[in-house]
Amino acid sequence: MKAIAPFLFLLSMILFAGPWSPASAAPTGPWPVLPAEAPSPADNPMTPAKIELGKKLFFDPRVSVDGTVSCNSCHNVMEAGDDDRATSVGVHGQRGGRSSPTVFNAAFLSVQFWDGRAANLEEQAKGPVTNSVEMGMKDHTVVMTRLGAIPAYVAEFEAVFGAGGLTIDNFAKAVAAYERTLLTPDSAYDRYIKGDESALSEQQKRGMQTVLESGCIACHNGASFAGAMPMGQGFYQKVPLIPGSAYDAKYDLTSDTGREQATKNPADRNMWRVATWRNVALTAPYFHNGSVATLDEAVRVMAKIQLGKELGDAQVADIVAFLGSLTGKFPQQTMPRLPGVDGKTVVPVDPK
Amino acid sequence: MKAIAPFLFLLSMILFAGPWSPASAAPTGPWPVLPAEAPSPADNPMTPAKIELGKKLFFDPRVSVDGTVSCNSCHNVMEAGDDDRATSVGVHGQRGGRSSPTVFNAAFLSVQFWDGRAANLEEQAKGPVTNSVEMGMKDHTVVMTRLGAIPAYVAEFEAVFGAGGLTIDNFAKAVAAYERTLLTPDSAYDRYIKGDESALSEQQKRGMQTVLESGCIACHNGASFAGAMPMGQGFYQKVPLIPGSAYDAKYDLTSDTGREQATKNPADRNMWRVATWRNVALTAPYFHNGSVATLDEAVRVMAKIQLGKELGDAQVADIVAFLGSLTGKFPQQTMPRLPGVDGKTVVPVDPK
Fold first, then answer.
1. pLDDT tens digits along A109-136
2. B92–chain A Cβ distance below 8 A for any pair
3. Could you tell me which residues come within 8 angstroms of residue B45 by beta carbon, excluding any fewer than 6 positions away?
């Protein structure tokens, strides 16, 4: 029962609050707006130089073993921060088992990765570089040796972090600082909550009421609609919470045991970090394995396997319309210039 | 003997021109500066909207069969317009046999591709999308169907090209228009030619004199140092021009027969479009197969196999220093926003 405690808590909060109205909705209530800035750890304040370095590293394919995969390959910030694929493709054409989550607004998530195995963006950034099916570097030393062969990077790390600044922890700090700029404020939903009644269509307003009444927001709450837990603690839910529907097999929902893979604790079997709704209209396909192709089907499946509800087509359409109102304004960005080495490459000719 | 005719022509021109001096060097002479603008075909004038559409298409990985490879994957404009690899990696981890040439200043090349099989950028842009080891689309219809599933692209093609504008030819025109903005003016060399004596070091000036006296500029001439032939005609050279050195085997210089692959004409065996020197310090590794790792070795090999000269270490260092002066100013660019489709992806779940 522990898993549905947040649901009961929120449900009671909603019931006692009475009928919802925009005028009474404060940013800290069940309908918060996206904050203008993301929180940073005390030991990693954001500075323009650090953000710029992080942007370069985020876009640099040379942090992968064969020089083909950058952070942006799977978390494409020119799209919606993901890669439009079911599962991503890493070095040597390899594929992982989980769908690339969007990097936009990841700064607001309570933990990182689908299974929450990283407490924050700094921890997360150190993972993919040495994952054999993602960037394929042997270890962090190889990553930093590669970057250390590029004098302009060495200088930039030292300018940002001081002498001896070229370390994997600082690599992660720079990338995380850049990622904390990847926010999408000012969605139609946010404008509506701030008082612009015309920002949502009537259908979107109906969908908003439906996600409230159906219980979706028991989990999809907070500024990112991914649970308002304190940073680092993680907000998880079992999927399917109500097993036994035809969807379990159809979308292969249980063979990847989720957080149990990270903790080795059977209590975490099929537990997953709650996914954000921000820009969800643009991050198809859906679910941890990318097995659900469309947003309307994702809504239908979630209602059934998490809430035991069979939604009608009109309800699904209303919810999908509301979710579309969570597409925000993507920041305009300049392209970084990746430093090189005169007269040679740092990528091995035939990387294994 | 036909292959060395341009060499003899230029050599005579140089000899009759007498000793070179910066003051007498006009942009149309043997030491031209990079023009501020690239020429466009009459039927494809550059417009801001067309350039912006072309930039989106250039960065969009969804023009590849599995949604992983964009033009920018191998012609990375955040680096020096190539991918720092010997040969590029396409869809499904496949590798081609030739090194990705830089897209910067490609607008000035007399023909496109290493073997000149495309007369201009428009023709070039239609190739990689359907190359099985590059982007892997079955045919151009599949490419345009994919893009046609994205309403914002359809609208943008029609805004730029008129009703029914979503065609592969217009795809190519837009990409080519964007590529014609990828110029790197204002290198140290260009500033020197324009009269700034201090723009080059003494070593670079010695290197400049050496490439003149050694005969390198018999082929590496014109604004792009890749031959000043009229657009579309192509400027080719046989490599090795003087076969028989140990380099032929060491760097596997003859097994790919170059332009003969495109024309099926034995006279074109081992003929290659002359490569640009612009930004050459940043485009290692070198040669059509990326087999030569460093610029100093590339200089040594070229002198031997094309000019029959064994350069001393000091001469090589001088030439490499001069080539470094051809690194230009890369344009600052904003990232495009790639349009999506609400609630679904256009990339097949399991693309073959």
1. 999 999 999 999 999 999 999 999 999 9
2. yes
3. none
